[in-house]
Amino acid sequence: MNKDLIIEFAGELDTEDCLMFDPFMDKDRISEWLEKKIIIIAKENDKIIGYLRFMYFWRNLPYICLIKVSKNRRNQGIGKAMVLYLENFLKQKGFNKLLSSTDADEAEPQNWHKKVGFEEAGFIREINESGIGEIFFLKRI
Prior knowledge:
By secondary structure, the chain is an alpha+beta fold.
């Protein structure tokens, strides 16, 4: 990882870049999430190269909804760094668990979750529009 890498919560100035990482969302939704501090970004030389969005199930169980790293920057520890940033934030708030998930037919993301300390926690079949199931992962923090 580059020493110039900055991991932080996204701000209003990051809205357009966030939309590029999360294209199915609109500007108003991104702005709402920025206010709620549920988007974490990885920046290098003022350019966003990583994006993590999370939410809370039942207000007390944090869940990573989306994590993306620019294709040319993958496998360099950036995704893991964003997860660690989130974990530190959550620990300070008193949380001790973190959930995430991936499509059941995506081996690479499943392996990544295990590599950064998540364990398989369950499966929901046919939940995605394509009919593919979703594997859920849990990490104790």
